[in-house]
Structures are given as structure tokens and as C-alpha cells.
Amino acid sequence: MTTQQNKTTEQAIHIGSSCACFAVRKMTRAVTQLYDHHLSEAGLRITQFTLMNAISGFGQVPVYVLAEELVMDRTTLTRNLKPLIKAGLVDSIPDEKDARVRNLSLTPEGAKRLRTATPHWERAQAEFVEKVGEKSWAEVSQGISLIDRALSNGPRPSDRLIATG
Amino acid sequence: MTTQQNKTTEQAIHIGSSCACFAVRKMTRAVTQLYDHHLSEAGLRITQFTLMNAISGFGQVPVYVLAEELVMDRTTLTRNLKPLIKAGLVDSIPDEKDARVRNLSLTPEGAKRLRTATPHWERAQAEFVEKVGEKSWAEVSQGISLIDRALSNGPRPSDRLIATG
DNA sequence: CAAATATAGATGCATATACATTTATTTCAA
DNA sequence: TTGAAATAAATGTATATGCATCTATATTTG
């Protein structure tokens, strides 16, 4: 049994160091914390900043479109929106044409908060790029795009826009 | 105000496509789903598989050591262990020397489940590497290691081991 | 047009994540 | 040796994530 036990242990260690999912999750924890620490000064998390920034970019956008754009489960998006709506930063208004749809937009207070938070995001991004190195990040960033394309089941809306242009 | 509005919108779009944290979080969602879909056949999630695999590698390990090893907040680890302990896959035994410490180990059932799940992990990993490309993943993997080192506040235990050898 | 199907959003459930704090214990220093 | 400081784990609180399912509405089909 000793041999069997040793083999199992070695296999375990091997998986730990090679598992792609563990690697990306671990990295994401570290990156998220860096951004969250900066944005906490503005009372937002990076996930919330991302959401508000995307909504701001659209001006007005249905939940399902935003979910597609962010490659996020619709139900996840619904939940993530809840604290922002409750805090009065985001409005969720029923669509006039389609009663199933709700359109999201920033409230004036939401737009203000986004402006206040942006310098903190910039500092987080700057610290990240400074620590990792601009060149290294550019390479990893390309790799991430590649992974996104490899794992998605078809072109995203944004990709279509680019492909069309 | 129209000019101001347009400027804000363009800035919003720019942040969305360049934010390192959004990029890594989006990728992690996709990768996690791939692994989770495979491992669901064994009744585990990739996070649980990772935990059990690490515990198996140690044989017996205190919570705080495992947290360091996985670069995970101790409280996060405590919570993630709860369903595994409840399911009888992991044992949490008080240390004999230090009453504050709890040592984790796989139960026989846990070891069995880990063995059952491993082929599913292998299929997930194989599908990932096949889709992304072995060479591309090797490059991204190096980049991830680089980011880990850049964001950590010092060498991890495993790094020390390698550096010593 | 009415029934079947599809879509948008919300909810129930379960887990993942981390900060602030609490509790128990150990270590260290006066 | 005792009292302060440090450490390990757990808990309170809040958000992040996604599957299965439900409800309401819209679209398609017979």
C-alpha cells in the first residue's frame, strides 16, 4: 500500500501545479484584490465598477444584452445589479415595446460615483501594469483573448462589430 | 453637455476593453465552467477537486498552511471546506501539539471520490488544452506565473522549495 | 385565432470570496 | 509568572457565480 500511497501523492502534487483552472482562479483572486483595494476608497468593487462602466457605455441597455456583452450568466447579472439598484446608482426601467425586457441606466448619482471611482481604477490598473510589466501584460492579454475565443461557442456581439468594421 | 456625454461614453468603452481585472475575471468564468461541467459527473466542483487534491498531496495539513499554499484567504478556505466536511469527504482533526490548529485529511470516502473524479479532471484539462492549443497555453501559463510573482508579497512556500532544489 | 414554443427576467438553492471581528490558545516579555 | 501581543480558526456580513426552475410575455405554428 505504501507504493500506491506514494503514487497517489505524487499525482496529486502534479495536478495541483498543472491545473489550468486552478492557475487562472488563483491569479484572478490576486488581481481582484488589487483592484478592490483601490476601488474601496470609492465605495465600489471592481465587479460593480465594471458593470456601471458598461452601462454607462451603452447609456441604456437591456439586462440580456449586457449579460451577453460581459459573457456573464443572466442570473448572475441580475443578482450583481441588485445592490447597485438598491443603492440608487442604477435604474431598471421596463421596456415600452417588450414588457419582458428591463432597460438599465445609470442614475445621476451613479454617473457621479463612476466619475469619482475612475481615478481609483486608473491607479489600480497603473499599479498592475507597473508590477507585471507593460510588455508582459500585453502578451498575457493576447493569450487571454485567445482563450476567450477558444472557449466561447461563437462570436460575441463585440466581435461581430469588429469583424463588420 | 453633449460633448461631455460623448467623452464619458468613449472613456467607458475604453476601460471595458482594457481593464486587466475584467479580462481575467471573464476568462476565469469561462474556464471554471468548462472544468465544472466535466467534474459535475463526479459530484464535485473544480474548487473542491483542487482542495481535495491538495489535501491528498499533503496527507495531513493544517488549515493555515493549506491557505498559504493555495494563496487563499483563511476564512475562504474554512467556508469552502464546510460542504466537504459535511459530506464526509474531509476530516478536520484538532492538532495534538497546538490546540488552535486543525489538521485536514481525506477520509477513505474522500480519497475514493478523488480517484473517481480524476479522469473527469483529465478530460477537462485535455479539452482545455486542445481548444486553446498546447503552445499558447504554455505561454499564457508562464505569464500567469509572472503575474502571481508580481502581485505576491514574497515567495510562496512552494517557490522556496523549488529555489532550494 | 389558439396552442405550442421561445425568450426575458426573477427566485430557490448551493457554493466561492474576503474583510472585520470574535474566541480560544500560544508565545513573549516585564 | 503573569499580562500583553500574536496566531489559528470560526463567524457576521456582503457580494459573486451559475444551474434549475418559475412567471410573464412574446413569437411561431397548426
Description:
The structure is a homodimer of 165-residue chains. Chain A is mainly alpha-helical and 165 residues long. Chain A has a domain of 85 residues: Arc Repressor Mutant, subunit A, CATH 1.10.10.10. The first copy, chain A, has eight helices and three strands. In chain A, strands 1-3-2 form a three-stranded antiparallel beta sheet. In chain A, helix 2 crosses helix 6. The longest helix of chain A has 25 residues. Chain A is globular and about 60 Å long. The C terminus of chain A is likely disordered. Chains A and B meet through helix 1, helix 2, helix 3, helix 6 and helix 7 of A and helix 1, helix 2, helix 3, helix 6 and helix 7 of B. Chain A binds a DNA duplex (30 and 30 nucleotides) through helix 2 and helix 5.
